[in-house]
Amino acid sequence: MDRTNISILLSTALLGVLLYVVRQFGNTGLEAVTPPARDAMPRAAAAGSTRVVATQETMASALPIVDGPATLGALLDSLGLDADAAINATRQWYEARGFFGANPLLGINPDSSVRDYYGSLDEATLEVMSRDNDMGATHELAARTRLTDAFGALELFQRAAEQGSVNALLQMASLQETLADVRPEDFAPDRDYARKLSRVGGRDTENNLRYQAFVSAVTAMRDGGEPVTDDSLLEWVSDLAGRNPAERVRMGCNQSFGDFIALGSTRRAAGFAPINTTPPPVFMAGTDTAARLPCQNTLNPIVSTLELEACLSTQVLDGSGALRLLYVCTSN
What we know:
Blueprint: H1 3-12, H2 18-25, H3 56-62, H4 69-78, H5 83-95, H6 114-119, H7 123-131, H8 135-145, H9 150-162, H10 167-179, H11 191-201, H12 205-224, H13 231-242, H14 246-269, E1 282-286, H15 289-292, E2 312-317, E3 323-328
Antiparallel strand pairs: 1-3, 2-3
Helix pairs in contact: 1-14, 4-5, 7-8, 8-9, 9-10, 10-12, 11-12, 12-13, 12-14
């Protein structure tokens, strides 16, 4: 199933027939978008040639280092692009998907982030803004609530996800994993808390919440695609998968596809874009991201809904010296 079919599905899917849709179309998969192929090893020189054969070491030393807005801007300038415009548009792309905090690569400091602005508002104002579909306000309310009312925070993160936030799905997964370590019997005197914990976790609270955390995180991968699927997320989801039985992992992969479709349907009904199709102007991704994705051997593997065909990708080194692919998608 290609991106056009997903868009059609999201346009026409009704929650009442969601499971039918998943059963009918979920096992066809999607054609994954992969970066341009590159030689894994340097080519050998022809016999008698005086050409210097590049080694992995000399290849790496020749690669540009991209470790912040200055080096990123210099590389974009060398490509003839408006670096400031591209970086600002990239910031807006991530903010539109709920990533409001600091981002060193884009030059966003903690005290200059959008999160700092929302943090300055009182709760009454945030409530009004959240009900008016301000995703940032919803995120701030959830962040303030998670330590005092984890269950209320889950509901707020769900609302933020329905308003278009990818990050809200990751925050839900983090909170669900935290709640998995809580035992209802530990809160026997607080019957209301025990009841709420059982409501979200069911009878087998620990295992169910770890399963839910895996589902939420994989749904975020489907929703955000390559620009949000960094090493730390891949490692975390791999750990979550390892803490669930193999059969539950397969179930979670299929459920995450259904949740992704349902989320898109809810967003469309509320007037939001159902899925992410336009990538940010610039972003970095791992060279082996596709090979590390979960759910590869299931009925519903994770595939990209982003239109990366027109993007250019080049190898760079990040601040730690790790090899990365820098995508430049300014034609989108």
